[in-house]
């Protein structure tokens, strides 16, 4: 009878995938065992040069997509302004000394004065004067930008 022994040749011992994993488990770094010195700039530049076409296509496609999205978005124009209205109600009413003494009267007159100023700013007369000064009446570019149709009024006389 022949006895089978568990003997292996040196070639079989050198290739053991479990041993390689076990070596890494004990803190040994495979990168330094192979004689690798770390990050190689030349190798990186070679890889970059080899993939230059792919990188260029990705950048160009991203740029084109950004331009298309920007052009397709609805333009939104916003404006903000701050008006300073000085309280001249005391001078307008001719009671400059009396009003500064009584805070209730002063507050009521100030409120009325400010409301008058707001009404003036919202008035159609002021709107027409501004539109004439800026030459917006009958200007098709203005109506297109506002997303409106031109009114049917007599535009030659400035009617809105």
What can be said about this structure in brief?
The protein has 160 residues and is an all-alpha fold.
Indicate the radius of gyration in whole angstroms.
Answer: 42 Å
Number of helices: 10
Write the element-wise H/E pattern from the N-terminal end onward: HHHHHHHHHH
Q: What is the average of the pLDDT values?
A: 74
Shape: elongated
Strand proportion: under 5%
The N- to C-terminal Cα distance equals: 118 Å
Oligomerization: single chain
Roughly what percent helix?
55-70%
Q: Ranges with pLDDT <50 over ≥5 residues?
A: none
For the secondary structure, the number of strands is 0
Largest sheet report: none
Structural class: mainly alpha
Fold topology:
Elements: H1 10-14, H2 17-25, H3 30-33, H4 41-50, H5 52-72, H6 89-93, H7 96-101, H8 103-122, H9 124-133, H10 140-146
Structure overview:
By secondary structure, the chain is mainly alpha-helical. It has a domain at 89-157. The chain is 61% helix and 0% strand. The chain contains 10 helices and no strands. The longest helix has 21 residues, at 52-72. It is elongated. The N and C termini lie far apart (118 Å).
């Amino acid at each position: 009878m022949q006895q089978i022994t568990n003997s292996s040749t040196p070639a079989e011992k050198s290739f053991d995938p479990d041993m390689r994993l076990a070596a890494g488990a004990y803190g040994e770094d495979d990168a330094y065992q192979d004689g690798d010195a770390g990050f190689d700039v030349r190798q990186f530049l070679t890889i970059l040069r080899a993939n230059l076409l792919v990188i260029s296509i990705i950048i160009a496609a991203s740029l084109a997509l950004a331009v298309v999205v920007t052009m397709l978005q609805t333009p939104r124009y916003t404006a903000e302004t701050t008006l300073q209205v000085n309280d001249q109600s005391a001078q307008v009413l001719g009671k400059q000394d009396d009003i500064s003494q009584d805070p209730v009267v002063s507050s009521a007159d100030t409120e009325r004065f400010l409301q008058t100023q707001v009404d003036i700013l919202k008035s159609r007369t002021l709107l027409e004067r501004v539109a004439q000064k800026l030459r917006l009446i009958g200007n098709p570019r203005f109506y297109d930008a506002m997303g409106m149709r031109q009114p049917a009024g007599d535009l030659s006389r400035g009617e809105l």
